[in-house]
UniProtKB/TrEMBL annotation:
PROSITE patterns (alphabetical): SAM_OMT_II
Protein name, UniProt field: Methyltransferase
Entry keyword annotation includes Transferase: yes
Gene3D superfamilies, alphabetized: 1.10.287.1350, Vaccinia Virus protein VP39, Winged helix-like DNA-binding domain superfamily/Winged helix DNA-binding domain
Length: 334
């Protein structure tokens, strides 16, 4: 077990290491190094960077093992660094860029102020996240790419480990660009789907579903889940939705879903569920971002989800482990 001082000083150093990774991701260094090693001057020219400054970042990145020295003042990618290439399966580039985006960086840096008064400093400056994204195409594009990359292991787990009813219609509530719905429909060729999300997201979803050859089995409906959701579905998926909202808002969303679904319908809540123990867990890390970015957004434990669903007139029936820290919670009408 590391000494507590090692853990604390390690956390202090993490901000410097993340800043180096952010620089690598923003400048596309992994893409520039994809075909082999480059000296610092050549790499700086391709990335539009100041060579002496870049040299110092490369030194840190080499210490982290994402690049390696490949000659006098030259660097090459390591196997670990390949994950920062834009074309790498499961690339982490978009995730790093999103978490380092100006407004997100501000949110995490002002977490102490948020904790002091219980109100998100991010919201005070930028408004609600989704309104901020709707008004700012740059951060919105980064966020969409980040959510798509983050959802890949969850989505694969959902398609492989959950048995959907034959011939069911699934409504993907706040389904984003449609990658989750597309994966489920490909894995279940007799199902149909409806993707429901805000107007500024809907066109992206239509393009995704068309590109996936699913336009004849899926439709996209624009709207606000606080006002209502499409009726008549057999399965309603809420993937990374409820953790953005406090209990009262989450109950409004769940209530609208319960009212809209068929009598024997199912609600599927895909979230990272907090453990009851004090062990390190992905959900606890994400919860710090929820605290910083939303007023009321929170990760929840199994018991807290069961209680929330119960208040919405739903009964938790099954929990499926999806891998990568995510769970699928199934609920039906009580």
């Amino acid at each position: 077990m590391p000494h507590s001082d090692d853990l604390l000083w390690g956390a202090v150093g993490d901000i410097s290491r993340f800043a180096a990774l952010l620089t690598m991701a923003e400048l596309g260094l992994a893409d520039h190094l994809a075909d082999g090693p480059l000296d610092t001057a050549e790499l700086a020219g391709r990335a539009g960077a100041h060579a002496p400054s870049l040299r110092r970042v490369l030194r840190e990145l080499a210490a982290m093992g994402v690049v390696k020295v490949a000659g006098p003042d030259a660097y090459d990618l390591t196997e670990k660094g390949m994950a920062l290439r834009s074309d790498a399966p499961g690339s982490v580039r978009s995730s790093i860029r999103m978490l380092g985006e100006e407004s997100f960086w501000y949110a995490m840096g002002t977490l102490p102020a948020t904790v002091r008064d219980g109100s998100s400093a991010f919201v005070k400056r930028y408004g609600h996240l989704y309104g901020h994204l709707a008004a700012n195409p740059g951060p919105s594009s980064l966020f969409d790419d980040y959510m798509t990359a983050r959802a890949i292991p969850f989505t694969e787990g959902l398609a492989k480990r959950y048995r959907f009813p034959a011939g069911a219609t699934m409504v993907d509530v706040a389904g984003g660009k449609g990658h989750i719905l597309a994966t489920v429909l490909h894995a279940n060729p007799h199902m149909r789907g409806i993707l429901f999300d805000l107007e500024h997201v809907a066109d992206h979803a239509r393009r995704t579903l068309a590109d996936e050859g699913l336009s004849d089995r899926a439709e996209v409906v624009a709207g606000d889940f606080f006002a209502g959701v499409p009726a008549g579905g057999d399965v309603y998926l809420l993937a990374s939705v409820l953790h953005n909202w406090d209990d009262e808002d989450a109950l409004k969303i769940l209530g609208n879903v319960r009212d809209a679904m068929n009598p024997d319908g199912r609600v599927l809540v895909l979230e990272v569920v907090l453990p009851d123990s004090e062990e390190p867990h992905l959900g606890k890390d994400i919860d710090m971002r929820m605290l910083a970015i939303f007023n009321g957004g929170t990760e929840r434990s199994h018991d807290e989800y069961a209680a929330l669903l119960g208040r919405a007139g739903l009964a938790l029936t099954e929990v499926v482990e999806l891998g990568s820290g995510a769970n699928l919670i199934e609920a039906v009408r009580r």
